[in-house]
Amino acid sequence: MATIDDVARAAGVSTSTVSYVLSGKRPISAPTRARVERAIEKLGYRPHAGARALASSRTNVIALMAPLRVGVSVPVIMQFVAGVVTRARDFDHDVLLLTQDDVSGLDRVTSGSMVDALVMMDIEADDPRVPLVAAAKQPTVLIGLPEDPEGLSCVDLDFEAAGRLAVRHLAGAGHTDVALIGSPPEVLRRHTSYAERMMRGLRNQAKSSGVTVDVEACDSTPSGATEAVDTLLATAPDTTGIIVHNEGALPHVLARLADRGIVVGTDMSVVAVCPTDVALSQRIPMTSIDLPAEDIGKVAVDMVMARLEGEQPSETRLLAPVLTERASSAPGPAGALG
After folding, report:
1. Residue 272: pLDDT above 50?
2. Which pTM value belongs to this model?
3. Which CATH number among 1.10.260.40, 2.60.120.20, 3.60.20.10, 3.40.50.1100 corresponds to the domain 4-47?
């Protein structure tokens, strides 16, 4: 029996385009529509009855579960939210925002007919919400990657690759002692997926590159950043390159380095993993690996709508990290931190 994927391949279009031709939800050019219709007729494709029934009882609402937990960067969370909301508008859908940190609200949404689909953020390695959405009648996309993503649809930055890229960049510039000033302790205690993947990539690349790496958890406060920098330089005084994966702490880390007379770009190289606008807002030019939060939110909506409107199989999309160098990454002179 032909599937929507077969139709898409035969017509040379995406599965979402086939869905739009079938549903009429978005305008499709006449030549493209004709190709899709010819493929449908040739293959004898018939939409799944369950998909047609669901389409007939739409609410035109997507639920977005973005729990505002301790340790999360609310400004960055809002960038993901903006991506979801703006892309949902393109599909004539509104967004129901759920910010609680429990499964009760999720259960209420999935057990009723309040929403057509769900997008869920801040995924933990062993997330208690995942079995609930896996069993839900609504299609769901996770922004994040649980330990076992089998059968789930997920999208995120490839944080493991980002960790490798950051270390590879510093090692390539000549650094042999690097460090990560990372997520707050609460985030690590929850085994939040992005933080664990970042550290895994960083440590694996450090081993491959023959680089020594230290890791400091860091509260996103001035005092937390001060403690992290001071502890790092006391326990690993030979450090010449720091990777900061903590948007809230980043300006405070830079301030503490300046207080100690350490010049970023001369005495110490710093690579930030954060949205580009966060890097550009710092007091000095920052080399950074972009976290394209708004784009990820938009991709999540594209994925969940494709599943809603057709027979899009579960999949995992990890966006490749991109590093932009805006400051020198060469190691400082010997003894510069002494």
Report:
1. yes
2. 0.79
3. 1.10.260.40
